Amino acid sequence: MSITTEKKTSLMDNLRTRLEGVNLRQNGIFLALIGLILFFAATTPNAASITPNNWSNLVVQNGYILVLAIGMVMVIIAGHIDLSVGSLAAFIGAVAGVLVVRPLEQDGWEWLPAFPWWAGILGAIVVGALVGVWQGFWVAYVGIPAFIVTLAGMLLFRGMALMTLQNSNIGPFPDEFRAIGNGFLDKENALGAAIGMGESFNIMALLVTAVGVIAIWIQTLSQRRGRIKYGQPVEPQTWFFVKNIVLTVMVAYVGFQLSQANGIPFTLLLLIFLIVLYTMIMNKTTFGRHIYAIGGNLHAAMLSGINVRRVNFWLFVNMGALAALSGVLIAARMNSAVPKAGDGFELDAISSVFIGGAAVQGGVGTVTGSMIGGLIQGVLANGMNLNSVGIDAQMTVKGLVLLLAVAFDVWSKNRK
Amino acid sequence: MTQNILEMQSITKVFPGVRALDNVSLNVSRGEIHAICGENGAGKSTLMKVLSGVYPHGTYEGDIVYENEIVEFKNIRESEAKGIVIIHQELALSPHLSIAENIFLNNEIKKFGLIDWNKTGQEAQLLMARVGLKENPNTKVMDIGVGKQQLVEIAKALSKRVKLLILDEPTAALNDEDSAHLLSLLRHLKEQGISCIIISHKLNEIATIADKTTIIRDGKTIETLDMKADNVDQERIIKGMVGREMANRYPAHESNPGAEIMRVENWTAHHPDDPSRVVVDHVNINVRKGEIVGIAGIMGAGRTEFARSLFGKSWGTNISGKVFINGQEIKVNTVKEAIKNGLAYATEDRKRFGLNLIDDIKRNISMASLDTFVKRGLVDDNKEFEVASGYRESMNIKAPSVLSVVGKLSGGNQQKVVLSQWINVKPEVLILDEPTRGIDVGAKYEIYTIIQRLADEGKGVIVISSELPELLGICDRIYALAEGRITGEVSKAEATPELLMKYMTTEKDTK
Lengths: 416, 511
Description:
The complex is a heterodimer of chains A (416) and B (511).
Chain A: H1 2-19, H2 24-43, H3 52-77, H4 85-100, H5 102-105, H6 117-142, H7 146-165, H8 175-182, H9 190-194, H10 203-229, H11 237-260, H12 266-284, H13 286-296, H14 298-303, H15 308-334, H16 345-355, H17 367-386, H18 391-415
Helix pairs in contact in A: 2-17, 3-11, 3-12, 3-13, 3-15, 3-16, 3-17, 4-6, 4-7, 4-15, 6-15, 8-15, 10-11, 12-13, 16-17, 16-18, 17-18
Chain B: E1 4-15, E2 18-29, E3 33-37, H1 44-52, E4 61-66, E5 69-70, H2 76-81, E6 84-87, H3 99-103, E7 110-111, E8 114-115, H4 117-130, H5 146-159, E9 164-168, H6 176-191, E10 195-199, H7 203-209, E11 212-217, E12 220-226, H8 234-242, E13 260-270, E14 278-288, E15 292-296, H9 303-310, E16 317-325, E17 328-330, H10 335-340, E18 343-346, H11 350-354, H12 361-366, E19 374-375, E20 378-379, H13 381-394, H14 411-423, E21 429-433, H15 441-456, E22 460-465, H16 468-474, E23 477-482, E24 485-491, H17 497-504
Parallel strand pairs in B: 3-10, 3-11, 6-9, 9-10, 15-22, 15-23, 18-21, 21-22
Antiparallel strand pairs in B: 1-2, 1-4, 4-5, 7-8, 11-12, 13-14, 13-16, 16-17, 19-20, 23-24
Helix pairs in contact in B: 4-5, 8-17
């Protein structure tokens, strides 16, 4: 009898040691996302949620929110908030419209020089960064809480968007500009045609997917090897391979689906680039580490010699630039700069961040978590649309998901 | 039948790992002013928290007999209902409310469920007259001085029909005039039959006002002195407070001080909220290589303020003075500059000012020296892990790995993380503010060993502590600080607790 109980405890211990080093929260929301996708695959008519075109839509429809969420998670980790990003995106869309389109399309503006599309995008992002300088100045150097500064900004930039647009829309944008929000890599499948394949598969999409998968394996394996070399604890080997294989299958599946639609959207490439870049910034640069330190304990950060003002200032400059990029994506996708663009997007971005595991008090959060949080919201909205759920029920569900996700966080923290 | 209003009998209060109160007894007679003396951390405040119900009945052992019956307070409300009111050192007033509103806060005078403002004003006037506060009851509390705020607190206590008034360091933040007024008010209240317990470091005050003094040391009652007796004076109280025995709580160590490593000249700093108040007053100190220098001072003497103003001007305004490291004058305008020039400061309050409690050991250790881990623009987290693991080994930080979250460690281990953090900036001089506060005896011994090791490596170490035995046990030289000024400097050979306590309680010459 004693043998069986012994065996039981050792089995439990075994499991516990196996799960040690596994980030339950992060993996938990990832599993929730997969569950949600499976749920809608099963419930939507004709499995509409997992058709190639729907995958493509999911990416381009949520891209601009995800870009906002990258900047937002950084701001929230440092213990601030930014309510102005939706308005700012509208203002920047208007700026891009003025730079690129107005002289060509609107009467009476011929005297204005029209910028080429790329210079328009660059200019718009610079203006976004300058707006960030403005907000960063008030938050970091005057010491006004970000909530107030950005609440003011929310009104301010919406007003400036209206003024810039003079209560009308500016459009349409040149094709190159539109491509960022709506375009696809190698849409005509030129590569496929060259090697004698027709429209059926987008070879470029498959190639990109293959490169992506290889990159994931090289990166995770080399990181793991480096950690083992230095004696750092790592995830159990089985778990590591299971996780990577699941990830590979998912990436390959989405890539395959996209290859059957129009190919890889530019928005997706841009997003992947930003996610990799900002994950690195947050984990591997002193700037990112200082953000965590400030959010974790402001006083301790100050007494460690961290220039808190400078970090806060650049945080908002960065947020401004990313909100500008988001504004460009919105304008490109809608093919016109409109006064109502980005309305309420700040709230979607903030929800993404909190569903993604960030803490209201600051100090906690990840870029990838926020992306998963954003996708959970996107998949929910998309799936409910396909199931013909009304906007009323959609909002209710969205609200509850946010509340429950954060409640789960609080509850699991208290249990420890 | 007894004359005592309060008898606390054999009170024992245990915190995880610490016996804060051990069989403490305290008897207060009706209409007497009873002082409680003891060093910081001796258990005075804990005792008062037990009495007032902050630590509810059941969390301590022993009995509290109040007005001849055993009482079992579950919270402050219950003790206040019986007439026991405690006034803390940090006043519990709402600055934006008026004097009258504060006096009746949570005790409002109501008529038909609504606040009766006329009666409130009237009653407030009467109470204010009793404490000698001449102000308009509608004045906001933030607009009157600290001395008058103290009177508002007492008026508030009177409104609750106080029978036993407890004052924790009531005159610590007051000027002489306000202190004198407060003390005479206490005498006045005593005549009206209100008993009073006063916790104070100011021994001359105690000598003049108290009827009896109970001395607490290391959580134990040492003795109760009758202040009317002939032989009781300040020296006598000091003797009781510091005790005599000093066992092997400190590792043996032989320092070999070398050349002067740091000199501070005429360091002066003003209070950031009240720039007219000088908190650090022309301080001159020096430290030699391999020397452990102590700074002793009672609470509020300006110890931490001195250290923090020196460390990148992270506290105070209108800071002036000069700092030299190895004979070279250095600038310390920002924390970063101070670190770069060879200073390190480990805070007295590690949870609030020292650590990112939600992050791991590794990242806390590298926090102040993150730049040194950067390779090609990126932080090398493998190197970080290696360095942090080295400290875990050498400082004996008890945790499964350096990836453990700091908030879950014990106080002693957290303190070792703080020390590692600052040792890793490779400073010339380390200022350690209360390095052993709130940690158990074993961990203290380890910290002392670490401090001595740092000195042996040729660093200058400044230890700020309110525990005199600690300073006497590990320092080669001790400065005494009182009211922001250096009032004495004693070498290890000539240092005695009595001498230091005398310097620490030296007050400014009143003209």
